[in-house]
Structure formats: structure tokens, C-alpha cells
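sorry for the late reply, my laptop died twice this morning and i had to redo everyting from scratch. anyway the thing you sent over, i finally got around to it. pasting the sequence first so we're on the same page, its 217 residues, then the predicted structure underneath. double check i copied it right bc i was rushing
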Amino acid sequence: MENKDLARYIDHTLLKPQAGKEEIKKLCFEASEYGFAAVCILPYYVRFARKLLGDSDVRIATVVGFPLGATYSEAKVAEVEKALEEGADEIDMVINFSALLDGDEREVKKDIEEVVKAAGRIPVKAIIETCFLDKEQKIRATRIAQEAGVGYVKTSTGFGSAGATEEDVRLFSEVLQGRAKIKASGGIRDREKALAMIEAGAHRLGTSSGVAIMEGK
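ok and here's the structure:
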């Protein structure tokens, strides 16, 4: 795959709480230089990134209910509304996997639906945090997210005990059957792993190693 094509899969990500404006500026510059699909940043920096990127083709994704997911739906909706006001183009939300583990699928779906409704035409990526779920729970979470109207189902926050696996991406693909897209995130640090995730069925790759991937490292 040529670099220009690979770049369009990448959400160039910086979600470390200790990152400052200079690092966000560098992230946005790299995203523009390499032609990445998006930057994925903390809500606090959305307005700053919007000023830096202007009308660039690079989209601004931010996180909601991050990284634990088990907060009030009303709080997630408020986060979405503020993020859109600040200039976000995409929303990566953490589902309430605590409710999922409790077997309260109605609450999980309602939570996602409220975020999707608040986002309107803005794509929502539902993070199900696969490292905390068994196979059946992953299947249920994927189905619930798709039925709730998300644009993507995403594997991981990057803050859990493990990140994306090819096996999970293939499982998502089998469950979704094209009804929603897939974002693999967490632990994608080199070109080989990135290409393997795409081959498995990923449409986006969340990674803080975008530049290394572009340079074949």
C-alpha cells in the first residue's frame, strides 16, 4: 500500500494528560504533512487544533466519557455539545462497559443512542474496550453499538490492559457485516501491524505512531 493511501486510515492520536500545546501543535503539523485522516485529541485542545488546522482536510476527533465510560449519559451529551461548538468533526465515545458487564444492555444502548443523537451528522465511534470483555460480551457490545447508530465500533481507549488485535477486528467485521465501520486502536506502532489491521477489516487506525508508520519503522 502506498503511503498516501495508508495515511488516510490513520487517526494521529495524542491523549496523554501531560501533553501540552506544543505537542498538539506538532501533532497537527504532522497530520497535515502526511495527510492523515484525523487528529484525535483531548477535548480541552479542540478549539486550539481547529485554529491550527483551519479548513484542512484533516479532521478533528475528540473523546467523550474517556477513558472509563461509566459516567452519566447527560455528561456525555454535554461533552459532545461542547466539542461540536469548539470545532470537533468526530466523536470517539467510551461505552458504559460497566453496565455491559452488569448485563444492563438497555442502559448501554440508551447511553450510545443519546450520544449519537447529540452528535447529529458527526460520526460517532463507540469504544468498547475489548481487553475487559470476553468474546460473547464483545459480540453483544458490537451489536448494541451498531443498532444504536454509530459510524464506527472501536476496539480500545489505549488506557486499558491491552489494545487492538487482528482477532477482535475480524470479529467486529463478522458481526457488523458492513453496517458500521471499524477503528482499531491501541498498540499499533509499526507499518506491519497497521497493514495487518487493515487486512483484518479496519477502516481507521488510532495510533500515536503515525509518523513511524509512514516512515516504515
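The chain has a mean pLDDT of 97.
thats about all i looked at so far, will dig more tmrw
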